[in-house]
Amino acid sequence: MTGCRLPMPAAAIVLAVAACTNTVPNPERVELHRSAPQTLVLRNEGSVPVVVAPQADDVEPLAIPPDGEDRLTVELASVADVAPAGDGTGARPVPGTERTLLAATDPAGYLVQADLDAVLRAGPAGAPPDAWRIAFAGCPGGGWAAAPAPPAEHVLDLSEPPLPGVPVRLCPQE
Length: 174
Description:
mainly beta
């Protein structure tokens, strides 16, 4: 494109935006803290068995009978990008990069991290499993990022399918 020129105010805006796009040199993601083990109670309050599908090749499906339950133990890690402080006094978390991620599960293979949520696949025996998205963000009081959470139980009733596109929120108990 020959002869293409931006008006002077537009050129100044483009230069100003370009100068501000990389204000954090070489951020590094670090774990800020980890929750105490949390118990995720997988409950079946329905009248047919529910199967939790494994998301790893070496794991068997988990069958939960009607009016039964099983448990997963999970640990959540609060992580953030950190970058050198401008004044040379060390590294600081980069605002807006804090996330809560799945750090460990026992038994492994049923609940996996997917983007910012975790996913559990479960449904009635003999039917394709539904994807249960479990969100750790949006909790009151700063949620998991505020401080390491004490041990707690969180109940997930698998007898009805999840609402499409709506994650189940898992927050520390207050």
